[in-house]
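B., you asked whether I could sanity-check this one before it goes into the benchmark set. Here's the sequence:
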Amino acid sequence: FIQSNLRVMGNLIAYCFKTDTILSKEEVQDPKPVFSWDKREEIDPADYCFDDLVGETKGKFPGEINGQQFSIENCKDCVLFVFDHVASLTIDECTNCVIFIGPSKGSVFIRECTDVKLAVCCQQFRTRDCKRVDTFLHCNTQPIIESSTGMKFACLQINYLQLASQIRAAGISLYNNEWNNIYDFTPVDHGLNFSLLPPSARFDSYLTAEQVSSALTGDQCTVPFSCEDSLLPHIVAEGAGASEPFLLSIFLGPNDGSSEVDTVLRHVKNKECRLRRSKETRMNTDTVIRIYGDSADKDNLIKLAKEGPVIGFEVEGDMALFKSTLPTLSKVVLNLSGEASSAKDINNFFNYVDMTMST
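And here's what the prediction gave me:
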């Protein structure tokens, strides 16, 4: 009886698993696992560099670099555009070139370059062994020069259709700009190795319309240079001294108030005010009380600071006129320092931000 039952069970098992195909040894084994790094697209290094060019105008369009590293080396008498965000950038041994690079998430390192006009928005900026490089710069940290002479700097003013999304992808703050806070590793006994270009300096003054149009075709990059409607705030190195500066603070809270910040900045420009400094930070309750303790809106400011960042501008201009003509805002909250406490408020705000950024 037992043997009979075993034969029946064996026949059932054989019937359930019968197949007309004989499996190979490889098919019987477990399939090889596929990892995320095995699925990466192959990258051609030649697509992420401009090398050994002479007298050419070249451009890279939005989406072509898409956050990869980029390099420029041994180019002469060229006009080079990269209208995309990059991971980092190196420029080596270039002479008499005009170069624009989109937002860089990491460092921008310039080495052994001479007579170069450069525009870049980045987290870190450094030069070594360079001569006569004019840089239009937006940099979240202190720029550094080393063994470099005849360097000139200006605040970058630029806008194009894809710039805002590229800046977000690169993790760059629009409001932390140290472009004029240059640190020289190799200072000289007399004079300086660097100077600042006048506030009226424009990067597109180095370019002709033909150079821009030859680098960009179709609608791949709309409005490449627009200084009048720059996405980046225009920070001047020194004020005119015609009026006392005041602290303009914008509490973003939990909302996306970027459009209203732009409205405020246009208002600053329209009222002929000047931005001297700009910082974006997060604040705890004690800091809000120390800087804004005299404000009638103190409790609301404390709440908003817990929910989002605070942007502070040192503004030079007629504060009474600026305040009386402010547009209505619904997503952000503004705070203006009192006339008697402006200097103290400015010092407290920017000293706090400098301290937190250095730790």
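One thing to flag: The radius of gyration is 29 Å. Otherwise nothing jumped out at me.
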